Automatic annotation (TrEMBL):
<keyword id="KW-0496">Mitochondrion</keyword>
<dbReference type="InterPro" id="IPR051975">
    <property type="entry name" value="mtLSU_mL45"/>
</dbReference>
<dbReference type="InterPro" id="IPR032710">
    <property type="entry name" value="NTF2-like_dom_sf"/>
</dbReference>
<feature type="domain" description="Tim44-like">
    <location>
        <begin position="10"/>
        <end position="93"/>
    </location>
</feature>
<protein>
    <recommendedName>
        <fullName>Large ribosomal subunit protein mL45</fullName>
    </recommendedName>
</protein>
<keyword id="KW-0809">Transit peptide</keyword>
<dbReference type="GO" id="GO:0005739">
    <property type="term" value="C:mitochondrion"/>
</dbReference>
<dbReference type="InterPro" id="IPR007379">
    <property type="entry name" value="Tim44-like_dom"/>
</dbReference>
<dbReference type="GO" id="GO:0005840">
    <property type="term" value="C:ribosome"/>
</dbReference>
<feature type="compositionally biased region" description="Basic and acidic residues">
    <location>
        <begin position="125"/>
        <end position="135"/>
    </location>
</feature>
<dbReference type="GO" id="GO:1990904">
    <property type="term" value="C:ribonucleoprotein complex"/>
</dbReference>
<keyword id="KW-0687">Ribonucleoprotein</keyword>
<feature type="region of interest" description="Disordered">
    <location>
        <begin position="110"/>
        <end position="152"/>
    </location>
</feature>
<dbReference type="Pfam" id="PF04280">
    <property type="entry name" value="Tim44"/>
</dbReference>
<keyword id="KW-0689">Ribosomal protein</keyword>
<comment type="similarity">
    <text>Belongs to the mitochondrion-specific ribosomal protein mL45 family.</text>
</comment>
Amino acid sequence: MVHGLETKTMRWSLTETVEPARVVHIRTEEVLTSDNLFAQVTVRLHTKQILAIYDRFGRLMYGDPKLAKSVVEYVIFEKWISDTYGRWRIHGKIIPQWMEPRDSLIKTYRVPNFGPLPPEEPDDKDDKSVKKNNDDDGGDEEGTSRPRLATA
């Protein structure tokens, strides 16, 4: 259940119960010996839940922190009956074949709000910005040449 949540924050809340929980199936089974009993109870839960997952920087990735969704789940609870202090625990969940598949998680992101771009100015600077001076051969009187800088 927590695989992939090492660097994320998950906020979940149960907002309301749409229908009362209903026991669908009960089963007891002996394991290895006759005095070692386990019980399993399958319960149908119809609730409204809120789920929001945030990345490590606190930005919302999945879900909605305000939108409650209706969820129908079949949860299997299990207890070791032979233990006097045994506790009920969640053994698993059942997804029936007739149930339509859940919506895939859509990654939430914020659409940037870009303003209009300024109009481009036409480029009138052909080759006029660099003037060549051909008056001089570029050399000094000593015979050494140095580069000339272009002037605008």
